[in-house]
Amino acid sequence: MTDDPSRLVLVASNRGPVSFSFAPDGSLAARRGGGGLVSGLMPGLAAVAADGGVLWLCAALSDADRVAARLGERAHGAPGEAPVRMLDIPQDTFAAAYNGIANSVLWFVHHLLFDTPVKPRFDAAFRRDWAAYVAYNQAFADALAEESVTGTRVLVQDYHLALAPRMLRDLRPGIRIAHFEHTPWAPPDYYRLLPDDIAAAVLDGMLGADHLGFHSQRWAAAFLDCCEAVLGARGVRISRSGTGGEVSYRGRVTGVAAHPLGVDAGALRARGQEADVRTAAAVLSGPVGERQVIVRIDRTELSKNILRGLAAYRELLATRPQWRGQVVHLALAYPSRSGLAEYRAYTERVHDLAREINAEFGTDDWDPLILDLKDDYPRSLAACGLADVMIVNPIRDGMNLVAQEGPILSERGCALVLSREAGAASLIGDSALLVNPYDVSATAEALHAGLCMAAGERQRRSAAVTAAASAQAPQRWLADQLAALS
Ligand code: G6P
Hints:
By secondary structure, the chain is α/β, with parallel strands linked by helices. It has 18 helices and 18 strands. The protein has helices at residues 36-51, 63-70, 91-110, 124-147, 164-171, 188-191, 196-206, 217-231, 265-272, 275-288, 306-319, 341-361, 377-386, 402-409, 424-428, 440-452, 455-471, 474-485; strands at 9-13, 18-22, 28-32, 54-59, 74-76, 83-87, 153-157, 176-181, 211-214, 237-240, 244-249, 252-258, 292-299, 327-334, 369-372, 389-392, 415-419, 433-435. Strands 5-6-4-1-7-8-9-12-11-10 form a 10-stranded mixed beta sheet, sandwiched between helices. A 6-stranded parallel beta sheet has the order 15-14-13-16-17-18, with helices on both faces. It is globular. The two termini are 19 Å apart. Bound molecules: 6-O-phosphono-alpha-D-glucopyranose. 6-O-phosphono-alpha-D-glucopyranose is lined by residues 14-15, 35-37, 158, 182-183, 336-337, 398.
């Protein structure tokens, strides 16, 4: 790490790379935090940390995190990893901003998830939550301003922090700010479900950055379309280029580009060889036997389309009886956002459908579907290793790294049934069997095609996915964004 403070890189995200818990003696213990965002950022940050230093700011999520934040603890992960500063945002402010706005409004807008006859409803309660979202973003902007000097580069992550770039710009005009959106971006007609002032405020907040990144060109283009539709009357000027463009607004220019996040295939395969993964593979192999394996691995999120995926499997077994007894579907769907009623209800429906499929087709010596809702990383890696067919069928997704990880880890090469609405579809394209995620019958047919695919063809396609993923490995992904700030 150099002594030059202007080489510092600050990262800001809601969920950070460590979380605290209380040890039995009441002391604080730090452990590595989970989530795709963290694992995507970590590998690239190691090199940046060695170069100029990194500090990661995140929200305190648990009681133990709050205590750590109040004590001013700067937790460290492994040696060489970024120190972390947690922000102790008042609990009710945090809950309203995180559950009320980030996850229930912005997430729903970008994934096109609203049940529009009923929701959304922008009323007084929404306005209270929005005020909390503003306060939450301001808390981040204030802390980032405190930590930065002229020349500091700041990497703001995701829809939780859409307003922070502008707020930070107002506090520290001389620093360089990037924002990366890990979700898709809504097309203008859907984005404009948001109240007009909120739709404009989100764009204005992000345009406080120098550079905006998205996982796919499609989401970058949708962002530019929204700028045109919402800020057109306010003098915005947009120029488009191959992978993004530029937005001139309020006297400054913001670059917009696609930076698809890939996977470090070598590191992932090495992890897949470790003892805990081998043990998990041995356990999973038991009920599978010599049968073919269809694998899905998701957080149980509304966007992941697990219900239609299971319905497609049911239709496969109903319409193609030759697969009965010949295939096992491993559906690993670990819990997510159980603070939201919609998520709890969705998880119940996934359980119910899985029970129905096993009751309808199961026999004494064959369970057609193994559904497991535990968060077990080694087992997820082991399942990828066993896959003959991987199904990744989100309604919409920023990237979806599992679509890359499955083929990379599959021992024999796997066929990938992939939603054309996942960002990964732009990266992987023809190597997958692309499906319309709403079309259950077409998805069932794609599962059939995947099960029928010759071994050599599966290997060829998996190698192509591995090459595409490796070309965009996390180190390169981060370096490209930092280069865009220089
Ligand atoms: C998904 C999204 C990310 C987001 C994360 C936050 O993984 O793709 O863009 O950062 O959810 O969810 P969490 O439950 O960790 O708050």
